[in-house]
Specification:
This is GTP-binding protein 10. Keywords: GTP-binding, Nucleotide-binding, Nucleus, Ribosome biogenesis. The protein is an alpha/beta fold. The protein contains 6 helices and 15 strands. It has helices at 55-61, 161-168, 218-224, 250-264, 285-297, 332-386, and strands at 9-12, 15-24, 45-49, 66-68, 88-92, 96-100, 105-109, 115-119, 139-145, 149-154, 186-191, 197-202, 227-235, 273-278, 321-323. Strands 1, 2, 4, 6, 7 and 9 form a 6-stranded mixed β-sheet that branches.
């Protein structure tokens, strides 16, 4: 088994979602004892969210993967205070989680321009250190990409996620009739007539046991964490991965997907979710859709179809259940409308909660003032009476 510290990057074809870097702040500059001069501090190393940057570009541009900040200037007769060492900026894409080799989170880059300090420079020499500078400690960090998107497509292989993304957006993922075609995340943009844009991430198909790191497993489940909402995609006729694996109906697929997300990170199933029932162009699709809707209305009554360890702790209440055919285009525009509506409803709910929290803070503030005012008046009265 390869040790974590020896893995430099993880990639799928040309896609890299994890990169290990060596970083070190600059050493401090020498002080000048006879004049009490202070050396300059060493520069810091920062990771900065940069436009149009990918981890592959970082790796190609800096093959040594070493980032060292500038050394602080020495104190001299001409300049008693040495100059500060130059900072080193490491470009990185938005959506990066920065961790130590041991997995401790240092910080996140959630928007362009976000900066996280990953290595601090040494102090310049001064009378406190007998004018000797301190050296910065080197360390290794990891840049772990978690895609940022409004919606994340979740489904078993061959549910038609890639075809759906192509039908809805400008993305061009690989599409074929065999199960595993999406081997790297793909982000498409849904375009609306009023120029509104919504990002949708197509994540590779999960398999049963993904939470145990089977198949793509953790390599792509982590990307679901940074999507605002989930877009479940199931084949209306059900799915069978291989001849040796059991056939799963659309209802079973929904519950198994829920369980895989729940076992990986329970918070994921609390995200708002929509259900897309794909391949409505197939024979008997309408009857199977009605059967699925009945099952989802009271899922407890149909979970006898699953083994006990495959039943989710909580069933997802989908915001919308949308039948589509990615092949013929049936229901695609309606689906885009439902996606937008769901995101707007979530944003409105968050705004309402934020306003209520601010109002509550104001009420507490005024309550506190009203309780303290009488005391202040009483104190002022006593002060006047005394004198």
């Amino acid at each position: 088994m390869v040790q974590l510290s020896r893995i430099c990057c993880r990639k799928y074809g040309k896609f890299i979602d994890n990169l290990r870097l060596y970083v070190r702040g600059g050493s401090g500059g020498m002080g000048l004892p006879r004049l009490g001069g202070q050396g300059g501090d060493g520069g810091d190393v920062w990771v900065v969210a940069t436009k149009d940057m990918t981890l592959k570009r970082v790796k190609d541009k800096y093959p040594q993967k070493r980032f060292v900040a500038g050394t602080g200037g020495n104190s001299s007769v001409k300049a008693l205070k040495g100059e500060r060492g130059e900072d080193c900026n490491v470009p990185a894409p938005v959506g990066i989680a920065i961790t130590t080799d041991h997995g401790r989170l240092i910080g996140n880059l959630d928007a362009l321009g976000d900066r996280v300090k990953v290595a601090k420079g040494g102090r310049g020499g001064s009378y406190r250190s007998l004018f000797n500078p301190s050296k910065a400690r080197p360390c290794n960090i990891r840049l772990d990409l978690k895609l940022v998107a409004d919606m994340g497509l979740v489904g078993f292989p061959n549910a038609g996620k890639s075809s759906l993304l192509t039908a809805m957006s400008n993305a061009k993922p690989e599409i074929a009739s065999y199960a595993f075609t999406t081997l790297q995340p793909e982000i498409g943009k849904l375009m609306y007539k009023d120029h509104k844009q919504i990002s949708v991430a197509d994540l590779p198909g999960l398999i049963e046991g993904a939470h145990l790191n089977k198949g793509m497993g953790h390599k792509f489940l982590k990307h679901v964490e940074r999507t605002k909402q989930l877009l479940f995609v199931v084949d209306v006729s059900g799915f069978q991965l291989a001849s040796k694996t059991p056939f799963r109906s659309a209802f079973e697929a929904v519950q198994l997907l829920t369980k895989e997300l729940e076992l990986y990170k329970k918070e994921l199933v609390s995200k708002p979710a929509l259900l897309v029932v794909n391949k409505m162009d197939l024979p008997d699709a309408a009857e199977k859709l009605e059967e699925l809707k009945i099952q989802l209305q009271s899922p407890e009554g149909f979970c006898s179809l699953l083994d006990d360890d495959m039943i989710p702790d909580e069933y997802i209440n989908f915001q919308h259940i949308v039948p589509v055919s990615a092949l013929t285009g049936l229901g695609i525009e309606h689906l885009k409308g439902c996606i937008r509506q769901s995101l707007v409803e979530e944003a409105d709910a968050e705004t309402k909660v934020s306003h209520e929290e601010k109002l509550q803070e104001l009420r507490q503030h005024f309550d506190k003032l009203s309780r303290t005012s009488p005391k202040k008046s009483a104190c002022a009265h006593l002060h006047k009476s005394f004198y």
